[in-house]
Amino acid sequence: MKQCRRVERAFQASAAAANYAWANRQMITHYIRKAFKKVFPNVEDELNILYDVAHNIIKLEKYEINGKEKELLVHRKGATRAFPPYHPEIPSLYQEIGQPILIPGSMGTASYVLRGTEEAKQSFYSVCHGAGRTMSRHEAMRKISSQGLKEELEKKGITVLVNSIYNLAEEAPLAYKDVNRVVNIVTEAGLAKKVAQLIPLAVIKG
């Protein structure tokens, strides 16, 4: 019984943190809209959110375990939902295509939009939410020159805007796995299907 209460409290704490993060993203969106209006005062249309997704979250979901339907707490750490078309938990807008999946690469590499498939059931309808790191932030800052990285990105036509260049290297492309290979593995495993490849144009780092 004590174990159940501890799990319940942990779940409630996680939900509170997720709600805080959601509210924080709403405020970031609000200030982005204000900045956009300041720079482009003659544009009448408001910026709309295309998609909002969390990648460190616990969800209560139903799955068949040993022939019986059970409610499970699914903790996706560095992962995201990958529901297939017509799954009851995805919004009506995506019912026919499946859940949108975002797999970011890095500031200097591609990112991907994918969609969920029925085969993803084998991973509790979950896929990775990023290429994954090859070195820690601290290690990247030790081994990679932030100034050199900025110059390299700008040579590729990627605009870099940072408050302080000191910690730019912690998110360097070399600190991450090859996103193209990661996405190919996800699709070859049948967990998701590719929709679009996105190429970076600008980096904004606080």
Provide a short characterization of the protein structure.
The chain has 206 residues and is α+β, with helices and mostly antiparallel strands. 32% of the residues lie in helices and 25% in strands. It has helices at residues 2-39, 137-143, 146-155, 179-188; strands spanning 56-65, 68-77, 79-81, 100-103, 111-116, 126-128, 159-162, 192-198, 202-205.
Number of domains: 2
SS-based class: alpha+beta
Stretches with pLDDT under 50, minimum 5 residues: none
What is the H/E order? HEEEEEEHHEHEE
Mean pLDDT over the residues? 92
Fraction of helical residues? 25-40%
How would you write the strand order of the largest sheet?
4-5-8
Gap between N and C termini: 45 Å
> How many E-type strands?
9
Proportion of strand residues: 15-25%
- Gyration radius from CA atoms, angstroms: 20 Å
Number of helices: 4
* C-alpha geometry: globular
Largest sheet: 3 strands, antiparallel
Question: What would your notes on this structure say?
Answer:
Helices cover 32% and strands 25% of the residues. The protein is an alpha+beta fold and 206 residues long. The protein folds into 2 domains: 1-48; 78-205, no CATH class.
Q: Which features would summarize this protein structure in a list?
A:
206 residues, alpha+beta, 2 domains, 3-stranded antiparallel sheet, two-stranded antiparallel ribbon, 4 helices, globular
Note the topology.
Layout: H1 2-39, E1 56-65, E2 68-77, E3 79-81, E4 100-103, E5 111-116, E6 126-128, H2 137-143, H3 146-155, E7 159-162, H4 179-188, E8 192-198, E9 202-205
